[in-house]
Amino acid sequence: AGNVHSILPKKSAWTNSYWDEFVSLPPVVPRGPVALLGLGAGTAAHMMLEVWPWIQLIGWEIDPTIIELSRDYFGMSSLEKATELGGSLSVRIGDALSPSATVEGGFAGIVVDLFADGKVLPQLQEAETWLEIAKKLMPDGRIMVNCGGADTPVSLAADTGVSSWVQNPTIKALCSAFPGQLNWK
C-alpha cells in the first residue's frame, strides 16, 4: 500500500516520526515488561532499547517473513540479546490481539501499532477490543497507540472547528472504552 512499516536510521536512534513518541512510555509506567503489538521490523524496539537499555520488550508480529527479514537486515537479532543492563526484545510470532498475547502479572505498558494494507485493524475500531487489551495491563499500566493510517485525515474540520482526530473511528472506540482518560497528539 506504499506505507512505511519500519525504518532503521543509520546515524541516530530517532526517526522524526511517530515511533519517537513510543520512547516516552517507559518513564510513565511501572517497571515491568512492555508489549509491542505490531512489531514490524523493530523500529520502536530499537529506539526503546537505545534509550532505556534495561527495558524488557515483548513484541508480536503476525508475519514470520517480516521477522526473518528483520533479523537479517534490520538488526533485530541484536535486540534479542540482553544489553549490559539486562534489557532485550522477546519476539512472538502470532496474533497480537489473541488472549494468549500476555504475560503473568500484566504489562507495564502496551504499544499498539497494528495495521493491514495501510489501515488500522478494524478490530481496533471496537471498544470491546480496547477493554480486552487493557485487561493485559498491570495496575497503573498504560496503552500507547498509533491510530493514523494512510487514509487518516489530520487537519481541522473547517465546518465544525473540531479536530478530525475526534472523527477517527479508532479514537471514537478508545473514547467509548476509556471515557475521560485519553490524551492524543
Automatic annotation (TrEMBL):
Alphabetized InterPro entries for the sequence:
Lys/N-term_MeTrsfase_sf, SAM-dependent_MTases_sf
Query: Which domain of life does the UniProt lineage start with?
Result: Eukaryota
From the Swiss-Prot or TrEMBL record, what is one GO molecular function term?
methyltransferase activity
Annotated GO biological process: methylation
The region annotated as signal peptide is none
Keywords for the protein's UniProt record, in alphabetical order: Methyltransferase, Transferase
Indicate the family of this protein: Belongs to the methyltransferase superfamily.
What's this protein's name? Methyltransferase type 11 domain-containing protein
Species name for this entry?
Aegilops tauschii subsp. strangulata (Goatgrass)
